[in-house]
Amino acid sequence: MVQGPYKELKIRSYDGEKDRARVEELERGCEIVGPADRVFLFTDTLGDPICRIRNSPSFYMLVAESDNELVGVIQGSIKLVTMARPHGKSGLARVGYILGLRVSPLHRRQGIGSRLVRSLEQWFASNHVEFAYMATDKENKASVKLFVDSLGYVKFRTPAILVNPVSPYRALHLPSHVEIKKLGTKEAELLYRKFMSSAEFFPKDIDNILENRLSLGTWVAYYKGEAWEDIRYDGASTGSEYWRGPRNWAMVSVWNSAEVFKLRVQGRAPLSCWIYTKSCKLMDRFFPCFKIPAIPDFVDPFGFYFMYGVHCEGKSSAQLVRTLCQFVRNMARKSEDCKLVVTEIGARDEVRLDIPQWKCLEDLWCIKALNNQEPSSLHEIAMSPPTRALFVDPREV
Ligand SMILES: CC(C)(COP(=O)(O)OP(=O)(O)OC[C@H]1O[C@@H](n2cnc3c(N)ncnc32)[C@H](O)[C@@H]1OP(=O)(O)O)[C@@H](O)C(=O)NCCC(=O)NCCS
């Protein structure tokens, strides 16, 4: 219990039965992006406020209450990931991810956000977390100031969020000389461990992600005429050590975020956005030859597919990455709720250039050392150049 400008501010664990409706109401009233363009983005957690962390190996949610009113909420998850280590090496680190921090608009600038973060950091520390990190929209001044200026986090990475609309009317044409194959989860796991395990933030429990019901599958693309040799998996030896893929290939996995939460746009811009949407749809329906990207309706709440683990090998794999992205957009057309396909890629990841995009938003990741980690180890991580690839965990989107 903390005494402050309130009679009392209580920070406690989330209790589904007692808090579900009130947290949902708070969430509905808190923008997650804005007000840069006077467009506000809100999330709707579809009756399950804990849905965004539920799929993580270890998670916790806290609420802040004042005079029986729920005024703030925060969520966190813990996992083991690949990270830069001193002397240019990389290894596993136990990290805590902070997400879903919301303070009711009427109670802001009274220290509630800071207290929620500190309480979550205590839970991290008691669970041997070495580093806490968070991601925010680069333009979210309140969030950046809170974490960086006030709570001692350092700016760390600036990955790009690439957004593509799902065309409601026509499927995208896929080149006939490209073969697309769906992999089993074991095979996908072996490929990720072989080719992406040195990527920053690669999760040790990649198998849990691939086997999660929200993960719709992993697909590879390669040129016709080349063979795709299946990878053996017999438990003891993975077989991936001996595996040789085609000269050029690409892979992607898809996560159905639309089943976890929906987004809602509100503000001044939606009217112009609505008019643009409608005119694009008309143009697309009657003059498909103009190939205007048909923008879906953002008036109603909408969901998206998240592409994760995008990886390619070979000098001529750019077209394979593009084809996989088109394939995923075609797949998304079949889902009623899904209006966007989104991915997040490290700022320096070369594959970024091959992913078609309609909008690119810059994310900002900030990090802090906990548990009396040597300040030098954080310095080492923050100063280390971003590796070629950054693995963005779909459970944290
Ligand atoms: C970001 C948010 C959680 C901050 O909560 P809060 O309870 O107002 O934060 P605090 O009162 O603890 O602020 C601590 C410090 O952060 C900084 N800060 C917070 N809000 C700020 C703002 N709007 N503008 C500038 N600085 C701000 C200030 O340095 C502040 O200290 P001060 O009030 O003594 O100047 C709240 O604005 C919010 O819910 N925003 C919408 C959702 C969101 O963006 N969440 C973050 C996603 S990561």
From TrEMBL:
One Gene Ontology molecular-function label: acyltransferase activity, transferring groups other than amino-acyl groups
Residues annotated as domain N-acetyltransferase: 9-175
GO BP: auxin-activated signaling pathway
Superkingdom, natural source: Eukaryota
InterPro entries: Acyl_CoA_acyltransferase, GNAT_dom, Plant_NAT
Position of the signal peptide: none
PANTHER family: ACYL-COA N-ACYLTRANSFERASES (NAT) SUPERFAMILY PROTEIN
Protein name: N-acetyltransferase domain-containing protein
Species: Eucalyptus grandis
